[in-house]
Amino acid sequence: QVQLVESGGGLVQAGGSLRLSCAASGRTFSSYVMSWFRQAPGKEREFVGFVMWSGGVTSYADSVKGRFTISRDNVKNTVYLQMNSLKPEDTAVYYCTAGRRALARRQAEYDYWGQGTQVTVSS
Known about the structure:
Elements: E1 3-7, E2 10-13, E3 18-25, E4 33-39, E5 46-51, E6 58-60, E7 68-73, E8 78-83, E9 92-99, E10 112-113, E11 117-122
Parallel strand pairs: 2-11
Antiparallel strand pairs: 1-3, 3-8, 4-5, 4-9, 5-6, 7-8, 9-10, 9-11
């Protein structure tokens, strides 16, 4: 059983930055692939990016590539989402997820989900 708690969301102006954190409880955090998803009002939940077990391999959705960075600290059992050059279309609830499948980009491939944290970007 893994529990995930996101934090760091808030209100920011376009062009600004935020860093989201996801604290995980569990015995084998380093054995999980960690990902971020987001869901904007009236839209389906979409993949943002993932980081592999050791943190050396990452992948991102085209919409955030070059602006967002995912990292993890296996000692602190924490995964981060650094968001730069934020745009109004980045406004969404952001969810931290954990799974055991490599290179997973679908919701069904992740076993654990956090409660989400709201990110609002004003124009």
